[in-house]
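Practice set, problem 2.
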Amino acid sequence: MSLDTKVEELKAILQPILEKHDFFLVDLEFVHERGDWYLRVYADKKGGINIDDCALISEEYGEKLDELNPIEPAYYLEVSSPGAERPLKNDESLSDYVDDYIHASLYQKQDGQKAFEGTLSEVTADKITLIVKVKNLKKQVEISRDNIAKLRLAIEF
């Protein structure tokens, strides 16, 4: 079984636990680092996730993993918030971040820039639209989804 298939299996086991508590999955990775395996879960909820929420997920997911035993090698389970500047990976939920401040890294320069930060105002299948500040003026920037290398939440200063 490939690592990608294993990750999908682990997500499928986790999903009902997250849904039961109105959490959503930001990312799940199963990685080998410095001789040890790590199963990392990054979860969130509207309004933000806290340490007690992470502990709840860890306890319930750990119990389910112990019951089903889908992972052969010994591993460490880590559950955490994705952080204030978390990556935005899930295309289906990208529209949930309309009106949030985000950072977009691009593959190819657009208007002489490879990155933009601004308020996400629209999401379509082909593009996103940001409202960015340029010298105290607001400007609308449309970015093709094909040109987006990475998206993440950002902190506006």
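Problem 2, part (b): a different protein.
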Amino acid sequence: MKVAVLDINGKDTGRKVELSKDVFAIEPNNHAVYLDVKQYLANQRQGTHKSKERAEIAGSTRKIKKQKGTGTARAGSIKSGVFKGGGRMFGPTPRNYGFKLNKNLKRLARKSALSIKANENSIVVLEDFSFDTPKTKSFTAVLKALGLEDKKSLFVLGASNNNVYLSSRNLKGSEVVNNSELNTYKILNANQVVLLESSLEGIESNLSK
């Protein structure tokens, strides 16, 4: 499929690029997308939640009442979870929520996400650009020219460009990544995916393996 290349002013440069059918026009695999997004979100969790168990509660260790003859259930410690101020039974403990997925599945998920965006006409190809100095105003002007000032956007660079990255960092609705950092969640979370020309070769090379 061919897509017109735009400049940073949002105007057609008169050139077109061919997007690989193997990356941008496959039948999306929804389950692969689900698993990859689930893994990404799971990896964002700190997993540092913790509650005190009975062994960690400060309190007396004496038996609080005799074993038999009280007419109530036996109880050995005031720190038991059945009493107010006692430890929590089966409470949360620190853990890692991450899980593994094989590379082929993750690759399929990213191709599926890009194909979904391409099918929705939510992919724009932009000619390569840079800024002399990091300036949010400059990046905002690009967003405005592309009609993305009120939309979530994901800019994919072919190589690291610190000035472009720093110029976008203060903008909540826009994110800049290299083609090697592209993932399923970020693709689907954006209303518009803006691919710089230099990023296409890397994306297609990474996902066509």
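Answer key, part (b): The CA atoms of residues 8 and 142 lie 6 Å apart. The two ends are 20 Å apart (CA to CA).
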